[in-house]
Amino acid sequence: MPVPWETIAQKAQEHRDATISLVEPGLPEITDLPLDSSPVPKAILTPEELAITESDPVDLVSSLASGTLSSVNATNAFLRRAALAQKLVNCITELLPNAALERAKYLDDYLKKHGKPIGPLHGLPISVKEHVKMKGRTVNAGFIAWYDRVADRNAHILDIFLAAGAVLYVRTTQPQTLMHLETSSNFYGQTVNPFNRNLTSGGSSGGEGALVGMRGSCLGIGTDIGGSIRSPAANCGVYGLRPTSYRLPIEGLSATMLGQEQIVPVIGPITTSLGGVKLFMKTLIDAKPWIREPSLVPFPWRTEPQVPANGGGIKKLKIAILWDDGVVKPHPPITRALKTVAEKLKGVEGITLVNWEPYKHDYAWTIISSLYFCDGGSEEATAIEGSGEPWRPLSRFILTDNPNVKKLGIRDVWDWTLKRDDFRAEYSQLWGDVDVILCPVGPGPAPLHDTARYWGYTSQWNLLDYPALIVPITKVDPEVDVAEKNYKPRNEKDRYNYEFYEPEKFANAPVSLQLVGRRYDDEKLIEVMEYIQKSIGLPFTNFV
Amino acid sequence: MPVPWETIAQKAQEHRDATISLVEPGLPEITDLPLDSSPVPKAILTPEELAITESDPVDLVSSLASGTLSSVNATNAFLRRAALAQKLVNCITELLPNAALERAKYLDDYLKKHGKPIGPLHGLPISVKEHVKMKGRTVNAGFIAWYDRVADRNAHILDIFLAAGAVLYVRTTQPQTLMHLETSSNFYGQTVNPFNRNLTSGGSSGGEGALVGMRGSCLGIGTDIGGSIRSPAANCGVYGLRPTSYRLPIEGLSATMLGQEQIVPVIGPITTSLGGVKLFMKTLIDAKPWIREPSLVPFPWRTEPQVPANGGGIKKLKIAILWDDGVVKPHPPITRALKTVAEKLKGVEGITLVNWEPYKHDYAWTIISSLYFCDGGSEEATAIEGSGEPWRPLSRFILTDNPNVKKLGIRDVWDWTLKRDDFRAEYSQLWGDVDVILCPVGPGPAPLHDTARYWGYTSQWNLLDYPALIVPITKVDPEVDVAEKNYKPRNEKDRYNYEFYEPEKFANAPVSLQLVGRRYDDEKLIEVMEYIQKSIGLPFTNFV
Questions:
Q1: Which pLDDT value is given to residue B1?
Q2: Helix axes A361-372, A410-429, angle to 10 degrees
Q3: How confident is the model over A408-445, as pLDDT tens digits?
Q4: Cys staple from B224: which of A16, A433, A490, B228, with CB 3.0 to 4.6 Å?
């Protein structure tokens, strides 16, 4: 007789809770969950733990390499903060305190013995989205039926990070199917937003987003095929990068549709600083991942400037602003963030601003959502129904209620691929001498639960395979970000998005923006954002 | 009533002949076709024409840029030699004398007026395989049913070459379906080998191979998805490169299965020198083709050395030799060429030779030939049968007699793609510190007509997406290259190949070798080959 899905879910939760309970010193139960979880750690953790967990990962690797901070101390601080984050926002599938502390101890001993770090991430605790295979552990991709799948080896990225000296100490939640811009599963329910529990943390790397937003991690591994790194990074007020495809290793993900290459999933960082983004990228690319994974392009991470500066350090930059994709109009706080940044950029010498005219973003969605599930979604349906677990609302939305999901023939796939390529070529021509595009990450701040239905602001760049960087800007202020009255929605999607915006419901939610570059301009994107941050000061609000 | 296919074929031939007849001064008919066509031009063309057409393309662009040679003179010389090649080896679909001479005149005038060339290929005549779209002209991919398809714009590569100053003067033959390692179609029959008309020129870029072999072109555009650049280059004693995918533009090819990306076709050069290979690659990549065609990787053509040398110019190189792929044993002249080169390389300081153990090359063929036609070959069948033309024997061989051709479902394609990736990863691990692999281009010299059934020595590198460079080495000498007696074939393919080798039949055929690199090591490959050429002197025989 098959095991009821509820039994498996309960087992998963019990396992998670057992791992959390191993943390020392133990943490109090939070009986009255606050709307805004972000201040809670300050009341519970030690000053040293707060200092460690709120440090920039670049500073942490520096302290760890010099031995001024031990990996055991760093790891334990992150273990405790992560455990606390779990109690507050429900972002963890399992904590790995024993293995992590043992590893941290090994690294501390190594440093003492050899007088030098083992690699560029020596001693740094790193968080990992569940479906990234970790040897000997379940990898279920959010499907109850897959709970007994156990990884027989590490994903490629984990081996590189381990060789670089990382400590793996926590695995994070993901939604059923991995194809939501939220994080809700029948294993663990919903992962909620650190700043407002009525809102989603985003997804599908929403466990990472919430954990990093809570500073229970400073550097985590996410994956993105339609916005899954960027939506949680943006919703939780942290940094995230969806790199260009074929730069970072993706071998060793547990997911449906493996072998599909029309729309390539990518791995990328969710982290607390731009330095964290760079550290993640450079560590992986310097490890020459193309030897084990030959689909990757063997080109180095470029450290030389991608935008030349004059003698005074002034860069000549043309930044295009996409205010609105022409399909779904962003909520007022998003537009305010764009306006404020644009105003400040106008005062920066060397920067030229232009408007980016959206080009067929609705058609782009038709293409990408036709290519996502060219088997008609049958793998997802099988994986869901295998255990008898119910369909989560957003699984229904993207799979069964999505008019673009069809069982395609081989020629159909080729035709959509050609349309994709034509669209990419047309879009490429729009750039002219524009360096980067600044735009929303979604049609609003973190959505209410089960309402994240519009992917266009992120999936657009997956279709085009452009790198896209998320940076936190400000927070929703209901007094300023009032709803637009008498707005006439353009279409059903626009109406849906417009109608659920009531400023009070989104109070305190992070507002982030997205910087987009041409294919393989990953380095340039980070460099430009560093320059913008330095020039105008970002974010405008504190998130810890 | 549909037009009989024979009528269309006749029309195509008449058109071709009409364009050939425009050449001035006109050429004599060759009534008694010789076995070896290669010496014929010396008896018919002027000394100036011979000097021009037998020049290295690098020297030609230099003379053209300085004005010491006019483009009109160069173009007319190549027009005449190409016309003659057509009469001898049947390699042309149409000559473009009027347009080419008008263009050459324009370029000569431009140089006079501006005192500088228009681009890096100023005035250089370039030949083009038929299925590369040329605006306003038929592009039929070898299918009679497609003869009325007319290109509405140039293929991307032609626009780049035109902007660089090239003169397009001739279009060359290809086989029915483009999926033969020979060049036989119902339009024009067989393109034959310049050195022995009983042998094939190779294919599918066999028109290019034969034309360049005859020196009716010094630089031509071929395409390769299983050996289609390398087989003709090798069979005709010239140079060819199958570059890594996504480096050169491929937008604008007329072919079946467009949109298929599991095995990516590439464009590459067929040319009379290594300098020609480099000129082709650098010109295209310097033009930043990734703007119009965003699937290409935006990485420059590297001009800095890829293999460091010591102060005395000695390079430390590890070269692995693949003597035999373990599936089909190469004919004696191939093994002799490898042995001779290996012997000489042993004497070169800094070079280490090792043997390359073949790894599942038979399985590699299963994977690639399963992925070639995942629609079960239905597009090819439709295209052939649309006109009523008969199936050519090698179309039958690769499509209907091939046990790996099946109508696959979406999941099947994904599974084969995963197998492809696993195989690529396994093969990548074999390299260690090997720099390049030296190996046969096929299981013998140019095959007898309709017998080129073994693709493994070239398709292996398509599956792995490795760059592969063809260099001419020597010619078959029936007195030396005697057949092996009492050989016991390993399998049916091996038996087939073994049994048709009778040295006398292959007399005078070019023997070439293939140098293979890791993915994206295109520059390194050329650099290593230049170094080998300089070190041991290649080819060992003259081909003109």
A1: 73
A2: 150
A3: 999 999 999 999 999 999 999 999 999 999 999 999 99
A4: B228
Residues of A with catalytic function: 129, 204, 228
The first and second tokens of residue B297, run together, are: 């990787």
Cβ distance A234 to A539 under 8 Å?
Answer: no
Residue A227 labeled ligand binder: yes
Other Cβ atoms within 10 Å of A396 Cβ, number:
13
| CATH top-level class of A57-286 | alpha beta
CB interface of A with B, residues 348-407, below 8 Å = 374-375, 379, 407
Distance separating alpha carbons of residues A361 and A364, to the nearest angstrom: 5
Which helix (H) or strand (E) segment holds residue A70: the answer is none
Tens of pLDDT, residue by residue over B197-233, are 999 999 999 999 999 999 999 999 999 999 999 999 9
Q: What are the CA-CA distances from residue B211 to residues A95, A148, B37, B88, B186 (Å)?
A: 67, 62, 11, 10, 19
3-state secondary structure of A376: coil
| Nearest chain B residue to A520, by CA | B298
Q: What is the spatial distance between Cα B320 and Cα B458, in angstroms, rounded to a whole number?
A: 17
Over the stretch A301-353, which tens digit does the pLDDT of each residue have?
A: 999 999 999 999 999 999 999 999 999 999 999 999 999 999 999 999 999 99
Taking an 8 Å cut-off on Cβ atoms, the answer to whether A294 and B464 are in contact is yes
Whole-number Å distance between alpha carbons of A400 and A405 = 7
Query: Which whole-number Å values give the CA distances from B501 to B195, B405, B448, in the listed order?
Result: 17, 28, 9
Q: Are A451 and A500 in contact (CB under 8 A)?
A: yes
Give the pLDDT score at A2.
85
For chain A, say whether B522 makes contact (Cβ under 8 Å). no
Closest-CA residue of chain A to B407: A410
- Decide if B417 and A259 are in contact by the 8 Å CB cutoff: yes
**What does each C-alpha distance from A531 to A314, A349, A520, A526, B450 come to in angstroms?**
9, 12, 19, 9, 63
Crossing angle (nearest 10°) for helices A332-346 and A522-536: 80
Which residues lie across from B438 on neighbouring strands? B321, B515
- Going from N- to C-terminal start, the domains of chain A cover 57-286
CA-based end-to-end distance of chain A: 49
Q: What is the pLDDT of residue A410?
A: 95
| Per-chain mean pLDDT for chain A | 97
| Chain B interface test: which of A292, A414, A464 (most B C-beta within 10 Å) | A414
Residues in Cβ contact with A464 at an 8 Å cutoff, skipping those fewer than 6 apart: A364, A423, A424, A427, A519, B294
Marked catalytic residue, from B37, B55, B127, B129 = B129
DSSP one-letter code for A459: H
What number is the average pLDDT over the span B290-308? 97
Mutual orientation of helices B522-536 and B332-346 as an angle, nearest 10°? 80
* pLDDT (average), residues B499-527: 97
Tokens of B31: 């009534």
- pTM here is 0.97
For residue B168, what are the CA distances in angstroms to A483, B128, B250, B496? 62, 7, 17, 40
- The pLDDT assigned to A1 comes to 74
pLDDT value at residue A76: 98
Residue B271 · residue B213 · CB < 8 Å: no
Cβ count within 10 A of residue B25: 7
Contact status of A297 with chain B (Cβ, < 8 Å): yes
User: Which amino acid, residue A155?
Assistant: A
Q: Fold for domain B5-286?
A: Amidase signature (AS) enzymes (3.90.1300)
B537 shares contact with chain A (CB less than 8 Å): no
Q: 3-state class of B200 per DSSP?
A: strand
pLDDT mean over A118-124: 98
Checking if the pLDDT of B332 tops 90, the result is yes
The fold of the B317-536 domain, in CATH, is Amidase signature (AS) enzymes (3.90.1300)
